[in-house]
Amino acid sequence: MTQHRVHVPKTRRRLAALAAVSLVSALAVPLLSATPATAATPLRTLAAAKGKFIGFAGATGPLADEAAYRTIAQTEFNQITAENAMKWESTEPSDNNYTWSGADQIVAFAAANNQQVHGHTLVWHSQTPGWVQGLGATAMRTAMQDHIATVVGRYANNASLVSWDVVNEVFDENGGFRTSFWYNTLGQSFIADAFRYARAADPNAKLCINDYNVEGINAKSTAMYNLVQSLRAQNVPVDCVGFQSHLATQYGFPGDMRQNLERFAALGVEVRITELDIRIQTPRTSAKDTTQATYYTNAVNACLAVPACSGITIWGFTDKYSWVPDTFPSEGAALLYDENYQPKPAYTAVNTALGGSPTGDTQAPTTPSSLAASGVTSSSVNLSWTASTDNVGVAGYDILRAPGTSGGTFASVGTSTTASFSNTGLSANTSYRYQVRARDAAGNTSAVSNTVTVTTTGGGTGDTQAPSTPSSLAAAGTTSSSTNLTWTASTDNVGVTGYDILRAPGTSGGTFTSVGTSTTTSFSNTGLSANTSYRYQVRARDAAGNVSAVSNTVTVTTTGGGTGGGCSVTATVQTQWNNGYVMQPVTVTNTGTSAISSWTVTFTLPSGHAVTGQWNAVLTTGGQTVTAKNAPHNGALAPSASTTFGFQASRPNGDTATAGTFTCTTP
Ligand code: XIL
After folding, report:
1. What is each CA distance from 360 to 72, 353, 355, 388, 615, in whole angstroms?
2. How many CB atoms sit inside 10 A of residue 273's CB?
3. So what's the pLDDT on residue 363?
4. Same-domain status, 308 and 382
5. 140-149, 172-181, 353-362: which has the minimum mean pLDDT?
6. Cβ of residue 10 lying under 6 Å from some atom of ligand 1
7. Which of 92, 169, 215, 270 is an active site residue?
8. Global pTM?
């Protein structure tokens, strides 16, 4: 594969090009529709979502003069490289005579549009004034140092300018060093020197080496690879490698671009596509447009596939201003937009590769589901639902409401960008129905969700329905001073607003009083006494103040507070009836720091009670005290591990007491 590029004298060609440009622009203005025809998600939005930048080479003339150019520049891109304004001939045309207008213009535009700037370029054989080229070795090195210190230093504290091409195009096609005036005068040392000067001038900027025809794996890119590896081994501050990517459809796409980027990334450098354009042999045909679009897709995909690839800069964006026709006779049309700022298939390709649907998205988001209401008061309700998904992203949700429990019309009462919404300003004691639907960036709407019916409370006079009784109250993680309670949630017509946690002292008798509230189905009770039993119950409460019946009772005995100890026990009444009950699980936990091989639990039976069955432990009764020793299979417990056993007891008719004062000991 050979690609010939000729750098003809730049200044002359640029002036001619600029003259032609202003003529075209003057004639074309009345014909321009100013805004791009596409309603696609902008490239910068898509790229940012992928963690990449997407940029363009910016020309100062149209950036200053043409609204259509500016509009696309700011809408579609989040990165700019100055196409010419930061080159040596632009910034220091004569010795120590710096001109900043173009460079400053680019940086100011970027700052105004939240774009990052890549400085291009400090040391290059082209577009560098004759006064530099004629210097002797010492003076040339000094001139290079001054130039880098001054240009990089000017923007070192500028937040927009984040990276520099320090040296550009130092190789020839077969992998040797280009015999430029730099190399001929200073030898290859100019490369390391330039990087060190740049690092000294801005310690934070990413410093890059940049070249063309290095996109695939070939002699030139391998020479670049070897140089970068050797420079970094010598602690020369090379942070990044730029792959210009001036491609042409007649030469084929470098199919190993991704692998090439990956081998550089493995050196620890950032990689970036710095000057992407894909020229065709003019005139355009739809077949050439299609091939070009495929190449753009391939290039974008190569960068997307490599995490170290920070982004892609297109070398311009409109064929109206492209260096290609000036440089490669009979070639052109290399960019994303035509001369009239209309997006080409190449634009569609880049947008699509970045995850967009530029040709008109018609896919609706999925239907939001599981719409539910909670926290109903006399004037408000909180809605939440399961989010929708969409190929171009869900932009938001419409919240729809209809009056009453049937009939009426659903109308929008608000929008949300999250999967929840709070609707306020409702009337007390009134029913409403809600639905939600999702909307994507292209305006497609989903089907509506399930309907949820809500009745506001009436300040005490409306809702009289109590929540269902919380069940399966259980204790776990009991220490010498705390226990964790969990239970199964209650349900309620207007929504459960919380739970009261009730506690009574000891294993029987005493009074249950509230020790706290919870809006979830768990509660941690702290501040308990060591070696002490407590009974717990919970009850649910709704927005109107209705309370449920109390849950089952769980009896907890705290551990011995570090003296003795080694194990703890909690006991739960699983079920009970007129003259008996089952305690299950009775949970034994190793609270020590080493394994135990056996345990003993003792507890007290109220008078008239008798153990009638047992499992997973061996129970012996002496008077009112029951001793439960581990079964052969569950004596061994690692630290923090638990096991359970259970038993059934009989009691006198009508007695509601249960066994208590559970204590665990290890030998
Ligand atoms: C080109 C510009 O696009 C032209 O306007 C200018 O006349 C010549 O330089 N490699 C580079 C870029 O690193 O700076 C070149 O830009 C394109 C090739």
Report:
1. 19, 15, 13, 20, 68
2. 25
3. 80
4. no
5. 353-362
6. yes
7. 169
8. 0.56
Q: Are 260 and 308 in contact (CB under 8 A)?
A: no
Verify whether ligand 1 is closer than 6 Å to residue 81 (CB atom): no
Q: Confirm whether 169 is a catalytic residue.
A: yes
Residues 574 and 543 in one domain: no
Rounded Cα distance, 257 and 243, in Å: 10
Structure tokens at 637: 């417990």
Report the percentage of the chain scoring pLDDT > 70: 93
Residues 373, 347 share a domain: no
- Tell me, yes or no, whether 306 and 377 share the same domain: no
Residue whose CA lies nearest to ligand 1 atom number 12:
83
Q: Which CATH number fits the domain that encloses residue 576? A: 2.60.40.290
* The ligand 1 atom nearest the CA atom of 322: 3
| Ligand 1 touching residue 83 (CB < 6 A) | yes
Q: What are 85-139's pLDDT values in tens digits?
A: 999 999 999 999 999 999 999 999 999 999 999 999 999 999 999 999 999 999 9
Is the C-beta atom of 14 inside 6 A of ligand 1? yes
CA 272 to centroid of ligand 1, rounded, Å: 17
Encode pLDDT of 573-629 as tens digits.
Answer: 988 888 999 998 999 998 887 788 899 999 999 999 999 989 899 999 999 999 999
pLDDT of residue 203: 97
60 touches ligand 1 (CB under 6 Å): no
- Sheet containing strand 381-386, edge to edge, reads 369-374, 381-386, 420-423
**Structural domain contains residue 316:** yes
Give the pLDDT band of residue 459 (cuts 50, 70, 90). Answer: low
Range of the domain at 376: 369-455
CB-based burial of residue 155 (10 Å sphere; 0-12 exposed, 13-18 middle, 19+ buried)?
buried
- Whether 243 and 313 map to the same domain: the answer is yes
Residue at 358 is within a domain: no
To test the pocket of ligand 1, the residue of 275, 321, 331 to mutate (highest count of ligand atoms within 8 Å of its CB) is 275
Query: Which of 304, 320, 353 is the last residue in one of the domains?
Result: 353
